[in-house]
Every structure is written in C-alpha cells, then in structure tokens.
Amino acid sequence: MTSKNILIADQDLNNLQYFFSYISGFAHYNIMNAVSVAMALQIQKEKKLDLIIIDWLTVLNSEKLYPNFWEDLTHHHTLPLILMTHTASSVLESNPELAVFVRDTIRKPFNAMNLREKMDRVLNIPPPHRMEPPLAQSSLDTEQKDTLSLASILQRQKEIIDFEKEMMIAERINLHQLREELRKEIAQLEDERKKLEDEKKDLVKQQAYFTEEENTLISTQVRLQQDLDNFELEKKLFLQQQTELEKAWKQFYLEKEAFLNEKKNISQKPPHILRKS
C-alpha cells in the first residue's frame, strides 16, 4: 500500500513529540510536523498531503492573521482534516461553520488505538488491509525515536524561522519603499500647500482690489443718486417756472386781445365823436 503523507500541527513541542511517538510506528504513514499555522500552510503548499491533524489552540491563536485559513489549509475542502482539542464536541458546536472542513475530531488525551482508527477511517483504509508495524520497528529504542522526532521538529522549526526572517526582510524593504513613497507624497503635498498659500494671497489681494472697486462704485452710485435728486429738484422748479410763464403768457395774450379790441373800437368811432371825447 502506498504511504500516506500526514501533517501534524501543534504549537506545543511536547504535545507534538508525544503525538509523534504514538504514530511513528504506524505502517504506511509518512509523518510531517509543524509548530505554527504559517508552517502548516507552507508544508501544505510544498508537499502532497493526504491528511492533516491540527490542534485547535494552534489555529485559534493565529486564525485572525489568516482569514482564509481553513479554505487554504484544506485546499478548498479537498484535503481531509482531523481536529485535536480537549473539548472537540463543544468546539464544533460553538463553531458550526467548521463542520464543512473537519472530517473528524479527537480529544486529548487519546490512545494509539483510537487515533489509528480515526486516521484509517478518514483515509478510507479498510481494517483487513491494515498493516501492523514490523516487530523490528516496534522494538526500536524509544529514546532514539524521540531524539529523531525532536531533531526533525527543530529542523523544521529552524526552516520556518529562516522563512519568517526572509519575510521580515522583504517586509522591511517594502516598508522602506513605502517610506520613500510617503516622503515623496509629503513633498508633493507640501509643494501643493505652498501653491495654495500663494493662490490664497493672490485671492486676498484680488478681494481687496474688488472691495476697493466696490467702494468706488458705491461712492459713484451715491454721487449719481445725489445728481439725480438735484436734477429732479431742478426739473420741479423748471416745471413751476414753466407753469408761471404759461400763466403770464395767457395774461399777456388776454391783455393784448383787450388792447386790440379797444384800439379797434376807437378806430371805428366818427371823428367828431373822437374830438368831443
């Protein structure tokens, strides 16, 4: 039977070593380990896995940093996952959305038989085809196995630390670039601020000029209103004089008519009447 690649993820090295000692003797299982969510995701990308067994507290401490953690870890529901926790049932009850990702749960502390049955069931390994570990392998020195497993864990932890260092260097470079971009943007904003200040000064000068022009126009308007008032007064006086002149003209015309009538009457009288008179 082809060996199955199993990833064990637990932030506690003691728990990881204890877990590794349980299943290191299982046949057809190739065991890999991770001590963090970042390390688990990295292994998932690099290796072709058949099963992931992950501790709930390890996920809980890092889930906020990886919003799509469950989809990425299970490769969009295609990779089976067993959740380890001290209260497996209550975790799924309080987080029902995990049911689509978690194939099975195992509660700590566990025994090898129960763990083996869950792993075989998730991987669809029938009981008749299960292979017990060879006698020579089961009789290996426990201390030697623990040393090898711990060395593997520490080596992988060193790799993830180196990877995180590279990420930190890249982030530092990105921060430096962002700082330079911000500096340029600040310089541009400062130039724009100076331009706005100059424009503001020009606007203040223009406002003062327009205010002066407005005052001049107001003064002109006041003077024109005064001239208009004087013109209306003179017009009124002129009309009064015109009325008086018309009256005088009518009086002159009447006197002239009377004079002409009297002259006409005198010219029509006989001469002897005129001498007597």
Termini separation comes to 177 Å
Strand order of the largest sheet: 2-1-3-4-5
Order of helices and strands: EHEHEHHEHEHHHH
Number of strands: 5
Counted by DSSP, the helix tally is 9
- Radius of gyration over alpha carbons? 56 Å
Which of globular, elongated, flat, extended, rod-shaped describes the shape? Answer: rod-shaped
Strand content: 5-15%
Give structural notes:
With 277 residues, this protein is an alpha/beta fold. Helices cover 67% and strands 9% of the residues. It contains nine helices and five strands; from the N terminus they run βαβαβααβαβαααα. Strands 2-1-3-4-5 form a five-stranded parallel β-sheet. Strand 1, helix 1 (13-23) and strand 2 (29-34) form a beta-alpha-beta unit. Helix 1 (13-23) crosses helix 8. The chain starts with a strand and ends with a helix.
Layout of helices and strands, plus pairs?
Layout: E1 4-9, H1 13-23, E2 29-34, H2 37-46, E3 51-55, H3 56-60, H4 69-73, E4 81-85, H5 88-94, E5 104-107, H6 112-122, H7 135-138, H8 142-268, H9 271-276
Parallel strand pairs: 1-2, 1-3, 3-4, 4-5
Helix pairs in contact: 1-8
